[in-house]
Amino acid sequence: MQKSSLLSLFSVAIVLMASCKSVEKVTSITEYKKNMLVVSSGGGFTGAETIFTILENGQVFSSSGFTPDKTTSIGQLKAKVVKELFIKAGNIDWDKIAINDPGNMYKTLSFGKNEQMKKQVWGGSKASPPADFINLYDEIKVLVSTFKK
User: Fold this and answer.
1) For residues 44 and 56, is the Cβ–Cβ distance under 8 A?
2) Distances in Å between the alpha carbon of 106 and those of 114, 142, 143?
3) Strand, coil or helix: 82
4) 3 state SS of 80
């Protein structure tokens, strides 16, 4: 009796471990082929830029200063949070709104694949993005601020 219970428990453990999805770690966002969400801010006296990139697998990358191509993986967001962010980004009509008004200090929100990234830039006095852009930008900034750079 005890042998069969132990065997059943062992079988359940094997099935549970096999059903867990492991997240494939990405080492370079320049080679990444899936959708990404990118927020950045910069300008001012120094002109330095801070960039955060969220991948579909939940990895978060950061770059800052004058070398935005030098990215570092800084953390991992939960799958549920990432899914919600990407749904929100997908619900925005990126083609309908084209904002390119950086001003002295600017913010950006981008979505898509490397070759097809849709980007909105604001901070100047000529254009303001709709609330859904600002809300998504702010939500991402709060989430990525929990990671140490």
Assistant:
1) no
2) 21, 17, 20
3) helix
4) helix
Residues 6, 7, 12, 18: what is their CA dihedral angle, to the nearest 10 degrees? 130
Please indicate whether residue 53 or residue 70 has the higher confidence score (pLDDT). 53
Cα 40 to Cα 50: distance, rounded to the nearest angstrom: 5
Q: CATH code at 133?
A: 3.30.1560.10
Please state, as a whole number, how many other Cβ atoms lie within 10 Å of the Cβ of residue 49.
18
CA quadruple 18, 23, 24, 28: dihedral, nearest 10: 180
CB atoms within 10 A of CB 16: 9
Residue 108 lies in a domain: yes
Distance between terminal CA atoms of the chain?
54
The count of structural domains within the chain is 1
23 falls in which pLDDT band (50, 70, 90)? low
The residue ranges of DSSP E strands in 14-71, in sequence order, are 36-43, 49-55, 59-65
The answer to whether residue 4 sits within a structural domain is: no
Confidence of residue 147 (pLDDT cuts 50, 70, 90): confident
Q: Whole-model pTM?
A: 0.80
What is the rounded average pLDDT of the residues 51-66? 90
